[in-house]
């Protein structure tokens, strides 16, 4: 392929994979590279470097451009420090991901919480600047955009709705609490409740439920009810105009939106106050081929 001029690079670091994109001056994705995420501080850096090297090969550009990184956990963007990113194996002491990755790549690196980065990508994709982005990936977290600006919180914890306990008899979450929403609704929770020998558990579960399997229907509905609970909490707190479902599980597309919308409707069936808010009507799922989190990370890298 002919070399292209790349203006920014974005990395979406997840519990199972790291996706990198290169954007041109119009914001168009000109290359994508995906690698399995090596867990732990050193593994995350190593994987990120491999992805950027892959983008260099794919574009024919040396990529001397800003790099934005979206990663789960508590992030201090100003310092490029990550804490408590349990889904990628970063625990304990604050980890200076921005500085270490910048040294390895030789370019400026900006770090942001992955849900926040995806939120910026969702704003750019939908044209709505007042929204909540609910990321259902390895974990569960939300990004909040008000008038197109992120709300990160004093300690970078705004939107960590996955770590709100809702089931005192539930399982212990990776955060140390018991019965968090993330233990009910996340890629990890779904894989534990519907294990498969091959393929994606979410695809298998929803296919079995659509075929009428009673156990699959029960597991799907519990999963959807957890997402609906998270959305209800978020909407009653910040009342966004739009709720975008994202993350790996959202690759399901419309079946996921319908299941969650149905759960929201069920929860509001005997609550006129909730029904009047029309939470199901606010739901959107972006096309599965839109790498919204990586694109948002690239926007973070350029200071947008």
TrEMBL record:
A GO MF label: kinase activity
Key words of the record: Kinase, Transferase
PANTHER family xref list: N-ACETYLMANNOSAMINE KINASE, ROK (REPRESSOR, ORF, KINASE) FAMILY
UniProt key word Kinase: yes
InterPro entries for this protein: ATPase_NBD, ROK
Organism: Nocardioides terrae
Keyword Kinase: yes
Protein name, entry field: Sugar kinase of the NBD/HSP70 family, may contain an N-terminal HTH domain
Family indicated by similarity: Belongs to the ROK (NagC/XylR) family.
């Amino acid at each position: 392929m002919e070399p292209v001029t790349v203006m920014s690079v974005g990395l979406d670091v997840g519990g199972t994979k790291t996706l990198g994109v290169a954007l041109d001056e119009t914001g168009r994705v000109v290359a994508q590279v995906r690698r399995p995420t090596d867990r732990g501080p050193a593994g995350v850096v190593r994987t990120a470097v491999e992805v950027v090297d892959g983008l260099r090969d794919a574009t024919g550009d040396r990529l001397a451009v800003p790099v934005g990184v979206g990663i789960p956990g508590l992030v201090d963007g100003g310092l490029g420090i990550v804490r408590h990113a349990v889904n990628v194996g970063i625990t304990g002491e604050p980890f200076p991901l921005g500085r270490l990755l910048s040294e390895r790549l030789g370019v400026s690196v900006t770090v942001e919480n992955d849900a926040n980065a995806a939120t910026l990508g969702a704003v750019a994709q939908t044209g709505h600047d007042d929204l909540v982005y609910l990321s259902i990936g390895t974990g569960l977290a939300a990004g909040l955009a008000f008038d197109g600006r992120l709300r990160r919180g004093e300690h970078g914890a705004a939107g960590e709705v996955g770590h709100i306990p809702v089931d005192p008899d539930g399982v212990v979450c990776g955060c140390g609490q018991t019965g968090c929403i993330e233990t009910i609704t996340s890629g990890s929770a779904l894989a534990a409740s519907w294990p498969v020998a091959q393929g994606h558990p979410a695809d298998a579960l929803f296919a079995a439920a659509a075929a009428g399997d009673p156990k699959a229907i029960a597991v799907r509905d519990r999963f959807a009810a957890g997402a609906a609970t998270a959305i209800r909490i978020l909407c009653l707190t910040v009342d966004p105009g739009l709720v975008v479902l994202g993350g790996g599980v959202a690759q399901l597309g419309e079946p996921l939106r319908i299941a969650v919308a149905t759960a929201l409707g069920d929860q509001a069936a005997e609550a006129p106050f909730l029904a009047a808010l029309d939470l199901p009507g606010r739901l959107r799922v972006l096309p599965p081929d839109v790498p919204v989190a990586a694109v948002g990370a690239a926007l973070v890298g350029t200071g947008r």
